[in-house]
Automatic annotation (TrEMBL):
GO terms for cellular component: plasma membrane. InterPro entries: MFS, MFS_trans_sf. This is MFS transporter. It comes from Streptomyces gilvosporeus. The lineage of its organism: Bacteria, Bacillati, Actinomycetota, Actinomycetes, Kitasatosporales. The chain crosses the membrane at residues 76-95, 102-124, 130-154, 175-193, 252-273, 279-304, 311-332, 338-358, 403-426. Pfam families: MFS_1 (PF07690). GO terms for molecular function: transmembrane transporter activity. The keyword Transport applies. SUPFAM superfamilies: MFS general substrate transporter (SSF103473). Keywords: Cell membrane, Membrane, Transmembrane, Transmembrane helix, Transport. Its main location: membrane. It is a multi-pass membrane protein. The keyword Membrane applies.
Amino acid sequence: MPHLPGMVKQAVKECAVLAEKTETEFGARTSAPPRRGFALLWGAQTISQFGDAVYTVALPLIVYDATGSAGSMATIFGLSLLPHALAGLVGGVFIDRRGPRGMLIGSAAAAAAMTGLIALLVAASQVDMVILGIATVLLATAASLLMASFETAIPRLVEGPELVRANARLETSRVIAQTVGPICAGFLVAAGSGALATLANGVSFAMAALLVLPIQGLKQTPAATASATGADFRTQIRTALSVAWNNSVIRFGSLVACAANFFVAILEVYVIFVLRNTFGVSAGAVGMVFMAACLITMLTGAVLRRFEGRVALPFWMAISLAALAVTCALMALQTDLAVVVVALLINIWATVLFNTYWRALRQRACPPGVLGRVSGIVRGTSYAGGALGSWCGGLLTSTASGITGFFTFGALVLIVLAPVTCRALVGASEVGPSEAVASGTGASEQK
């Protein structure tokens, strides 16, 4: 593709403009350069995210080339979500007790090993679904622990006034990775280098581990480590579960996120199947479609940022649920290629919108001392819904009427959830975490 370098340069340029606007809006500019520790962490996370972006598109393409089955694609994708249901919560407790450094290095190294194994299987043309499924579960477990470790490490390296600026840099890197990664994956798989696309993710994990090694300040203090006991571990788990259930905002939002993920988690994988199987789109073109979707998401996000603070967070969640309902309706139709592409664009945009405002809402509603573990529970619930939905959708792909019914029912459920979510959360979200604890809708951290 002769215009590919220009497209990539334009994507990077748009991301840089977005980053500058974000930093200016939040008033987070500082004259001090980034600390060395954060700079290394930033590099580690950016490299890892690029590898993930390549692998996320490459894996379904590899499974399709090996099996030609949407069911197999959905099964493997569901397995990649399942470990997040538990690993985030349990890993969060260990990170709080031991510090993120060991988990960062260990999980990145384990992920590199698992991805290397998958690359060897692809290179040898021995893509056995059972072995691939086991490797996918192990890789997803390590990746879940790595995500939690990155999130926990940031406040240890960046002081409070600089957190917004630091997160703006990380978000910009993530957008660039998700924009450039898919098109790289598509062209590598199209060129017969599925193993190379997979290996790129493994190399990114290994480089992330090496970059984390010299970072100081990520170890837990000896006193904090010595105070951790088995009973304390169980208490922390029970406290987090109690807060997640008794806080009405977190409980209702988690159930909504789980339901939404049940119907839309399979969508991107199924879009890849439809593009390749029904419309004969090349792997390289599939990557370009995903790149375009990420660019549109980035640009619309910049426009929507102008309305932040003017509209309640639950209202944005309702808009995103309605948009996801439209996505499911379009996928139920599948009348032509343009409909499928538009469905993908709306899905990526709406998913980013929902996740952004749902995360902000639960951070506002949850007591700070238990936020990390509660976030693990919330993510786990959502991923569990996505895994179950992927498997159900995968079983229904054997017949056109089955998958059409799945997406039609999803559209109906989501369009009903949109106004219900807005009405249920607008009033409850006005209660802060301290008030929620006092009124019985939350629970304080037990020491």
